[in-house]
Every structure is written in structure tokens, then in C-alpha cells.
Design brief:
2 domains, mainly alpha, single chain
Amino acid sequence: MTTALDTRRDAFRQNWRGLSIYERFEQVVAAALTVFIAVIIVVASLDLAKEVFLLAWHGTLEPLDHRVLLQVFGQILTVLIALEFKHTVVKVVAAGTKIIQVKTVLLIAVLALARKFIILDVNEYSAPTIFALAAVAVALGTTYWLIRER
């Protein structure tokens, strides 16, 4: 009986035979990046869990304290961004495609910028800096829209 894993392995072998040396190199690098990103995700998740546990243990986990909330939420969003990035690289390896789609990279950049806006303390940044971040958000959104409409 053929399993889904056997089918995927056979498809990978068939695809691998058709790749050039450079394309195989790209696949190996993408697989290595997947492992590295997975390690980063595990470390970031453990750090987040430790942070929440210590805050709860010391009784300082106050959801209404915006500084604590922003710190924890920032860590959560960092893990989510890393997961999305890993998912993108895994898609490249699994599908045997040659490049990561520009749309996906733009969406990850928008997610990272959204993280910055969410944890942004307006008292720490000047108005021109916040305006520049907003301009980057508009530029990324416009670029994504132009690529999607193409």
C-alpha cells in the first residue's frame, strides 16, 4: 500500500533528477534555512514561554499594563513572523520551485511592519520617524497591490 509519504518522496526524487546542479544547490540551501529558522522559532518560543512564566510567577503579569502587554505581544508576533518565513521556505523546498515569490516576501515585510506599529511607543519616537514608517507601510501596500494586479 502506497502512503502519502511514499508518494511525496517519489515526487521529490523525480523532481530532483530534473534539476540542474545550481537548482539542487538552491534546494539544499533552502532546506538548511528551514532548519535554521526552525531552531530560531524553538528558541524564541522557549524564551516567550519563560518570559510569561516568570511574569506570572512573580505576579507582574498584568494584562492592563501596556508595557508588559507590548513586550509579550511583540515576542508572540516575532514567533509568528518566523513561522510565516519558515512556511515560505518550506514551500520552496516541497514544491521544488526555484525562487520565493515576491508577494510572499512583501507580505512578511508588511507583517513585520505591523508588529513594529503594534508595539510602537509613540513617546519614544519622533513624528518624522513615525511618518517614515507610515510611508514604508504605504509603499509596501502599494507594491503588493501592483504585483497582485499584474
